Amino acid sequence: MARRTKADAQATRNTLLDAAERLFEEKGVSRTSLNDIAMAAGATRGAIYWHFKDKADLFNAMMERATGPLEQLIAQPPPGAPAPGMDQVYAAILEALRHIATDASLRRVMQIGTHRVEYVAELDAVQARHLTLHRQWLARNRSALEHAFAQRPCPAAVSPDMAALGQQVLVEGLLQSWLLDTEAFDLVQAGRCTIATYLRGLGLEVR
Q1: By the 8 A CB rule, do 143 and 75 touch?
Q2: How far, in Å, CA of 138 to CA of 134, rounded?
Q3: I need a surface site. Which of 58, 85, 142, 150 has the fewest CB within 10 A?
Q4: Domain 54-201: which topology?
Q5: CB of 189 closer than 8 Å to CB of 97
Q6: Tens digit of each residue's pLDDT (9 = 90 or more) over 8-32
Q7: What span, in angstroms and rounded, lies between the C-alpha atoms of 42 and 184?
Q8: Average pLDDT estimate for 147-153
Q9: Smallest Cα–Cα separation from 41: which of 19, 61, 8?
């Protein structure tokens, strides 16, 4: 009986997240209330508070459900493990772009997180999560670039910090542009070309 109750609770949670995803896309995050989500899910407001402490908690749960595979791609290696090489980071970025381009639910959630959310006070936890992921990508890129620069016979023209920042801006800008108009260009192909060109300008080649 307990197993069935747990399964029912998980089903209710997923129904609430599905409803939030639809409403956030349609109305934006700030204009969607928890009551709106409960009604759309055919649940009570109490059911929402059983699963989520507030709207930011619900939003982050929605993002984590969809972006889990992407977050695995940027997970830092365990202490003592070698830092990822530039080829690995490049491949991870392209794999992340491929996931976004081919998974409709993930794409919708990314559009919500990019173009349908305002970082107002009630969503401080959403901004904090976004910033954490941004810094994880940046740190992974910096580590790989620093290692790649160390293998070159000539000193790099820029620091690993600035090189990583430039790469981050390139990828995030590319993704934002594509999410505005997903028919404008092939996200993976554009990512492959632009990132390789950027790295080539730094004197680095990737496969």
Answers
A1: no
A2: 6
A3: 150
A4: Tetracycline Repressor; domain 2 (1.10.357)
A5: no
A6: 889 999 999 999 999 999 999 999 9
A7: 37
A8: 89
A9: 19
Identify each DSSP E strand in 32-185 by its residue range. none
- Whole-prediction pTM value? 0.84
Among residues 157, 7, 17, 167, which one has the least CA distance to residue 94? Answer: 167
* Own/partner pairs, 178-183, CB within 8 angstroms, 24+ separation: 178/101, 179/107, 179/110, 179/111, 179/114, 179/115, 180/115, 182/101, 182/107
- pLDDT tens profile 122-136: 899 999 999 998 998
Domain with CATH 1.10.10.60 in the chain: 1-52
For the segment(s) 1-52, the CATH number from 3.40.30.10, 1.10.10.60, 3.10.20.90, 3.40.640.10 is 1.10.10.60
Predicted local distance difference test score (pLDDT) of residue 80: 66
Locate 86 and state its tokens.
């530039």
Token pair, residue 43, equals 């649940």
Nearest partner of 15 among 65, 83, 81, judged by Cα: 65
Q: What pLDDT is attached to residue 1?
A: 39
